[in-house]
Structure formats: structure tokens, C-alpha cells
Amino acid sequence: MTSSLATPADLTATRRDDGTMVVTLGGDWLLSGVLPSTDALIDQLRSGVSRLAFDTTALADWDTGALSFVLRLSGTARTASVPVDASGLPAGLQRLLVLAEAVPEKADAKSDEEDYGVVDWIGLTTLSAKASAGETLEFLGQSVIAVWRFIRGKARYRRSDLTLLLQQAGIEALGIVVLVAFLLGLILAFVSAIQLQQFGAAIYVADLVGIAMVRDMGALITAIVMAGRSGAAYAAQLGTMKVNEEIDALATMGIDPIEFLVLPRFVALVLMMPLLTLFADAVGILGGMLVGIGMLDLSFTAYAQQSIGAISVTHLLGGLFKGAVYGILIALAGCLRGMQSGRSAGAVGSAATSAVVTGVVWIIAAAGMFSFVFYLLGW
Amino acid sequence: MTSASNNGAPIISVENLTMSFGDFVLQRDLTFEVHAGDIFVVMGGSGCGKSTLMRHLVGLLEPAAGRILYGDRDFTAASTKDRDAMLRRFGVLYQGGALWSSMTLAENIGLPLGEFTDLSPETIREVAAVKLALVGLSGFEDYYPSDISGGMRKRAGLARAMALDPYILFIDEPSAGLDPISSRLLDELIVELRDSLNTTIVMVTHELPSIFAIGTNSIFLDAESRTMIASGPPTELRDHSDNPTVRRFLNRGAAHG
Predict the structure, then answer these.
(1) From the candidates B70, B79, B92, B168, which should be mutated to test the interface with A, based on the most A CB atoms within 10 A?
(2) Nearest chain A Cα to B91, which residue?
């Protein structure tokens, strides 16, 4: 506390003839210094001591370091029914000791995180999964009602909110989507070029990249970028509003938070996702073309013609439709996790993380389903 | 100040209300009435369920048992539509103000006006300015909640709660986080609004100075026995309650008889 030249803490215990154990504390007992080990002393205390006393005449400076030691010692003494004579301690330390021991630790106050067995774990997980499924269904139902009211023009939300959300999910996201899609096109072209060159069928790189981007990859990569961008943002925004009781304030004003907060986010993503997907498709093909022209010595016209010949309108519309559906999933995952968020800073963080994870899982699952259904339909 | 024995039908009647989270019962068998013009205080120690009671009264939580009536209309059994209509006549001031952080103060106050009245945008802005002036915030119309202090946010929250001239105003911990002077000014403002606009106030707090200064009637929730253990005007409870817990609380822990 005062001087930087602390004398090291020093601890000795002597046993008098009447069975009294006198613990002598010397030097500086500070948390910032080095404190002596106390385990040996605790063991001694348990072996036939009749009284515990202290000698602190050589104690220079002390803080919580000394208090926690004394507390531990007197706690052990109490369980071993050894009387404690605290009169040898400095007055301040005596008062702190009384304060710390005034209220016995509440036995049931500790959180009961016992070691659960596998059976408990299965049971608890099942119960929470059931509760979570119920919440998700309720949220879905409310969202459908909100969308229906929106279609009939009766929904309550702020136009200016929607404009801002459209901008955030549209033009502001375009840069990153374009960059990622371009690189994806490049990668697809490289991978296929190596294989197709062996057959002298390098020109088919254009078919492969074109169809893959337009049918599936364009929408998929856009969705994954948007899940990390908008999905997480929505969860964090709604979670923070929940912490601040802003969502309660809407509800008690008779304004439906789903309509007011979830609906505009939902609409923004459903409208913007197909547009972003369109850009991703085009830029992805451009990336493939770069490889085709630079590495495979194809001409621009040959590559472009091959691409146009390969891609059909069905492919294009199918891809855009997928994009819109992924948009629905991202908005739902983000808003659901945001509305479910707990009321603390940590909970908002996990809501954002969980929104991305949920969003990506839903997207991939939907992509798998689409592939199967589109295959069955022969599209 | 008017005493509890107010004539006429109660504005709020709570009958045998039980509040619980799952299997955990927070409070049971709460029965009380709030009369017009009251400043009704819900008091009790930390964690006894005061704020939870308020959340039940404004429909954010559903009672486990019992019912809540406003006038003679059953709030608990009402349909969502009826409930929303009733909610529009309430104002709620949350602990931190709960202003919508993406909107300016004027937009915060203007939102309920825009949603539930046919006023023109110009009129709405004027009304918002008047409401802000009433709580001493004129000139702050275009500030965002993050630009102003905690005390100002609370007053702005009060202005928003008063936007639709509610006949009942619920206030959660009015003095939490305020210095003694701001807290007293807020108390005076609450009395002023009650007197001038005929608003009935339901207030959740454990601030003794506020309770005695403005409370006209009260109930005391006990965390140990999990029910209400006293009701009546706060000063009367302080001096004459036959329950030692209530007397100790209202005398700030000092032994009193």
C-alpha cells in the first residue's frame, strides 16, 4: 500500500503447553506480494489443538490477503470445534472478520450445477428442445399473420425503417457479395479446368461454372454472406431492444412488435436477396471467364456463347426463387433468436451467434431439399 | 392528500392474483383495488416481485391464477383486440425509460400519436414538443436517446408514456439511477401530472422518500411469505402497521416499537 519495498510475508505457528496454537504473522500480507502456503497449518489445526490465537506484532501492512488467510483458518477451527481468540489481530482485521462471519453462507444460494448424469442430460435437453420448438412455432405463426396483414396493407410499421433496412440489405451488402461470388466463380473454374483439360474439353468449364452459379451457388453463397451480415445484425438489434425494454414498450402501447420490428426486416431480405443473387450469378460467371481466357486460352466470345447456351431461364428463375426463400430463412432465424434473447449483454452476443448458426443450417438444409425436388421435377 | 378511503368504483381491481414462473410461485393471492386519483405504491424488498406485478398489470405476463379488472372489464379474459384497446389508455414508464433507440425524442413521442390518432405530421410534432416541454426537455426534439443523460431519458420516457393522455400511468422504479434532486423533481412532476390531467398513478418503488412524499395508498409484498402482508396509506403503515416487517422496512430498518 505505502512503500514499494515490501518485506516478504512470514508465517510461523507455535504450540504452547496448554494446547493453544499461536499463529504468528509477520511482514507484509498483501495480495500483490507472495503469500506463504497455509495448507500445512490447516492440517496442524485439525490435530488436537485446544485453542487458536494470533500474534501480529510483527505484521507490517495487510489487506484482503491476510483476511482470507485468517478467515480460512477460523473456518477450519469452527468445523473442528476449536475456539478462536481473535484478540491478537489488528483491530481492523478483527472487525472485518466479524463482518465476514456475521451471515453464514446460505446453503441453497449456490447454483445447483451438480454433475448431471447422462439420463438427466437427455431429459433436460428434451424438455428444452420441446419448449424451444413451441416458441419457434408461435413465432412462425405470428410472422405469418404479420405478413398477411402486410399483404392486405393493414400492418403497422414505419416506412422509414423499411427504407433503411432495404438499403442495408441491398446496396450496402453488394460489395461483399460481389467479391465472394467472384472468387467462388474463380475457384469453380480452376477445379473443373484441371479435370476437363485432361479430356480436351476445356470449353465445358463455361457450362459447369455457369450452371453451378446460376442454379445453386450464386444463391447459396449470397445467403451465407447475408446470414453472417444481416442475420446476426437483426438478432443483435432485437436482443438489445429487449434488454432496454423497448420491445415491452411497443407491446404495452398496443403495437405488435412482430409487425413493427420483424416484418420490415423480413420484407427487406425477401426483396433484396433475389437481386443480390442476380449480381452474384453474373459476377461468378465473370470469375470463371477470367480463368477460361487467362488459363485455358479460350476467347471471350467462345466462353460467352458457351455460357449462354448452357444456362436456361428455368435455371435462372430457380436460382432467384431459392435466393428469396433463403432470405425468408435468414430473416426468420435472425429475428427469432433476437426475440428469444435473454436480458443481458452476454445473451445478446449468443443470440447473434445462434442466429448465424441457425440461419446457415436452415439454408443448407433447404438447399439440399431444393436439389432433390428440382431433380425430381427435372428442372 | 386524499386518503385511501375513496368513494366510487375502483379503477383497477386485482382479485386473488397468483404470479409464477413455471413451478416457482413468486407471489400468491394478491387482492387490492386502486381508485381514481390515487398514487398507488407497490413496495417491498428487492426480488419480491414488484416489477413482475407491474408486468402482469400491463399484460406482458399472464397470471397463473386470479384476474385483473379495469373498471368492470376483465383484462385477463379479454381478447387481444380488446386488450390492445385498453392498453392504449395506459401509459408505462419503464426503469431505464425504454425509449426506442433508433428514433429521436420527437419520433418516440410521435409514434403512438401517429399510430392511434388521425393527426397530421405537423400537429404530431407540435404535440410532441408540448409533451417534452412539460417534462422540461423543450429543444431536445431531435436528440437521440443515446445523446442525453439517464435522468433526461427517464423524463422523455414519461413524456412518451403521457403521449396519449392515459388515464392510468404505470411507473417502474421512478428514482432508480437518479440523484436525490432529480428524483424529487420527478416526484413533483408525477403529482403535477396527476393533478392536472386526472391520471391515476401506479408506481413500483422501494424509495422511502418518494413513497412518503407522494404515495396515497400502497400494498407491501413480502418475499418470505410470498404474498402481500399490508395495505393502506404509506405513512399510516409506517406508524401503525401491526406487522413488524412492514414497520422495519418503512423505518429503514430502525427498530420502532
Answers:
(1) B92
(2) A253
What is the pLDDT averaged over residues B85-113? 92
Cβ of B92 within 8 Å of Cβ of A254? The answer is no
At residue A334's C-alpha, the angle toward residues A332 and A338, to 5°, is 115
| Residues in chain B, total | 257
Domain shared by A97 and A157, yes or no: no
Question: Is A253 at the interface with chain B, CB within 8 A?
Answer: yes
H or E stretch at B16: strand B12-21
Within a domain: A269: yes
B84 contacts A252? CB cut-off 8 A: no
Check residue A230 and report its DSSP letter. I
**Cβ B96–A245 below 8 Å, yes or no?**
yes
Residues 6+ apart with CB under 8 A from A329: A223, A359, A362, A363, A366
Domain count, chain A: 2
Does B98 sit within 8 Å of A156, measured CB to CB? no
Backbone angles phi, psi at A377, to 5 degrees: -75, -10
pLDDT in tens, B234-250: 999 998 888 888 988 89
Cα dihedral value A357, A363, A369, A375, nearest 10:
-140
* pLDDT tens-place string over residues B139-176: 999 999 999 988 889 889 999 999 988 999 999 988 88
Contact in structure between B221 and B42 (CB atoms under 8 Å): yes
Residues A90, A190, single domain; the answer is no
In DSSP notation, A334-348 reads: HHHHHHH--SSHHHH
CA distance B100 to chain A (A): 6
> Which of A102, A117, A151 lies at the terminal end of a domain, its last residue?
A102
Nearest to B115 among A244, A248, A255 (CB): A255
Q: Domain range holding A35?
A: 10-102
Element (DSSP H or E) covering residue B156: helix B150-161
Tell whether A322 is covered by a domain. Answer: yes
Mean pLDDT for chain B overall:
89
A87 & A29 share domain: yes
Contact B94 A161 (CB under 8 A): no
Of A156, A244, A252, the CB nearest to B92: A252
Contacts of A183 (CB under 8 A, 6+ apart): A287
What are the distances in angstroms from CA B38 to CA A240, A244, B216?
34, 28, 6
Q: Look at residue B255 and tell me whether its pLDDT is greater than 60.
A: no
Does A227 share its domain with A349?
yes
Q: Which three cell numbers stand for residue A279?
A: 449480381
Verify whether the Cβ–Cβ distance B87 to A244 is below 8 Å.
no
Q: Answer yes or no: do A246 and B98 touch at CB < 8 A.
A: yes
